């Protein structure tokens, strides 16, 4: 797996413009392994965003969905409602949203 990630990183860094932002993207997948699609963001996009919707009941993880995308802004979407939560993290460098562990929202820079 490590070799695949190194190859993906090298390929993304060799593509296109020097200042282009690349993010990992996926739409509401149950596993981070399914969120390794590389996307070149538009010129308007400044952030790679990872969002996780999860349901936990007394320590039992009943479900999790992961969404990753390019975005022109960093959404303020961290909500915890008992058993359900929705967390978002943002970062500003290419391929910075590899991991699916948003613990806090990064402040816009």
CATH-defined superfamily: CD59
Strand order of the largest sheet: 2-1-4-3-6-5
- Structure summary, number of beta strands: 6
What is the typical, i.e. mean, pLDDT? 83
Q: Can you name the CATH architecture? A: Ribbon
**C-alpha termini separation:** 32 Å
> How many H/I helical runs?
1
Named CATH topology: CD59
Query: Over the alpha carbons, how many angstroms does the gyration radius reach?
Result: 15 Å
Given helix and strand content, the structural type is mainly beta
Low-confidence stretches: 103-109
Main sheet summary: 6 strands, antiparallel
Shape: elongated
Q: What share of the residues does DSSP label as strand, in percent?
A: 35-45%
What is the top-level CATH class? Mainly Beta
Total domains, how many?
A: 1
Structure description:
The chain is mainly beta and 109 residues long. The chain has a single domain (2-91), classed as CD59. It is built from one helix and six strands. It has one helix spanning 2-14, and strands at 22-29, 37-40, 47-57, 60-71, 79-81, 84-91. Strands 2-1-4-3-6-5 form a six-stranded antiparallel β-sheet, with no helix packed on it. The termini are far apart. GO terms for molecular function: acetylcholine receptor inhibitor activity. It holds the Pfam family Toxin_TOLIP.
């Amino acid at each position: 797996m490590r070799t695949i990630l190194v190859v993906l990183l090298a390929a993304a860094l060799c593509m296109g413009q020097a200042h282009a932002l690349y993010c990992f993207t996926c739409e509401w997948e149950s596993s981070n392994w399914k969120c390794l699609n590389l996307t070149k963001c538009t010129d308007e996009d400044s952030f790679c965003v990872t969002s996780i919707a999860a349901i936990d009941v007394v320590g039992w993880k009943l479900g999790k969905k992961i969404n990753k995308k390019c975005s022109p802004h960093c959404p303020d979407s961290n909500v915890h409602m008992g058993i359900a939560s929705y967390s978002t993290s943002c970062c500003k460098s290419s391929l910075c949203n590899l991991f699916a562990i948003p613990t806090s929202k990064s402040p816009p820079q």
